[in-house]
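Regression report. Comparing outputs from two consecutive submissions.

Submission 1:
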Amino acid sequence: MKTKMVLITGILLIILGLLLAACSSKGGATATQSSGSSSTTIDGATLVNTRCNRCHSLDRVTSAHKTADQWKTTVTRMLSNGAQLTPDEENVLIAYLAKTYGP
């Protein structure tokens, strides 16, 4: 019984790791990422759902009403806390947040 639980736990951890890896390699806003010959368009809503939502509930984001400068400060602080965004994603996210959740 104990061996079975360890096996199931291990499988679940592997699946979780694969899901997290898949989420971190995807983005979402109006920036274009290029890697070789392929490009991906990223939108702000997807960034909020895939990056911000890792540590915060969406209520925390959607209940805030900040200017673009205030969102930039917040995003910069989140980057220093370990959030992962490319510079293009950062710009798209800030623009989206300011437009959607501005004062």
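Submission 2:
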Amino acid sequence: MPSAPRKPCRKSGCNKLTVGTYCGDHAIQKQVEQKQERIKYDKERGTSASRGYTSRWSRVAKLYRIENPWCVKCKAKGILKFNECVDHIEPVDGPDDPKFWDESNWQGLCISCHSEKTASEDGALGNKKKERFL
């Protein structure tokens, strides 16, 4: 079977042809940049405990998930998939924010739907960070 045609590396100014997105030199460089971005993102975001997700939250979230077992985004598409986490519909600023403990601001999501939502809000995976007006 013939192989895919080679195309130019996506790094501007690079003339090398490659089968992938970047040539060998720039593929490694891109991986290093992505890892550095992830480290920076993790430092800025803080730990889950520093954001208010304590043992108290774990207990409350577990009860919510039992009472609301389905991922709301999947269910809207006609797919029944168990929720795996409780998400704040409107982002909150930690446990002191009144919306943090407001059950009407919660929804059950599967991991993939939660990751997609978080990435779109926090600016991960190449998305622009959404501005929040408080």
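Expected: both submissions complete independently.
Actual: both completed, but the second showed a warning that disappeared on reload.
Relevant detail on submission 2: Strands lie at 7-8, 17-18, 85-88, 106-109.
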